[in-house]
Prior knowledge:
Blueprint: E1 8-14, E2 24-30, H1 38-44, E3 46-51, E4 56-61, E5 64-69, E6 72-79, H2 84-100, H3 117-121, H4 137-145, H5 163-171
Antiparallel strand pairs: 1-2, 2-6, 3-4, 4-5, 5-6
Bound molecules: iron/sulfur cluster.
Iron/sulfur cluster is lined by residues 124-125, 127-132, 134, 137, 140, 154-156.
Amino acid sequence: MGNLITEYRCELVANPHSHGSGRYGIRVMLTNDISTVFPYLNAVLDGTWYDHENSIFIGMVRRYRCAFRPHEIQVAANADPTTMPLIVSEVVSQVNQVWEERDGIEPSFTERKLPPVYHIFRLLPRTNCKQCGYTTCLAFAADLRDDKVLLQQCPPLSRPENKGIRRQIVALFPSGLETGGN
Ligand code: SF4
């Protein structure tokens, strides 16, 4: 059986998890649609979120949190130009290995869906104060949903009096949410 991922391009993208560090996340752009491997990845990887209908899958590949869409993989890694090729190679080889071994894997269609953006948005302060670097709370909510930003990057939410709201937002995510300890 051949590899699922045979051709791709990759680039460094600003990593919202490490603002100002000079390090980056990675976007891998794929030539072919890889969504058929998602149920197999869902069966074997840790920390998964899976929305089968919308072809969104998130899971830990090696030590990297990866968000998959049919033609793209976003890798949350502190990468630089020298480390990017190795990290991408690790992720791609893991996906290809799961694909190679799929006949021995019971695919899992168990869905752990991400919450609707509006459900997150309505819990945010909704002041559009821009302290998070986004022009609107709605844009922040969309990237929080897609694991591209940390909850703690909304300073107003870090205030002690908003602890209950932070918990409500975290509770929207079936597998929890990385909050930096808040
Ligand atoms: S910092 Fe918080 S309140 Fe301000 S725009 Fe961003 S998400 Fe909205």
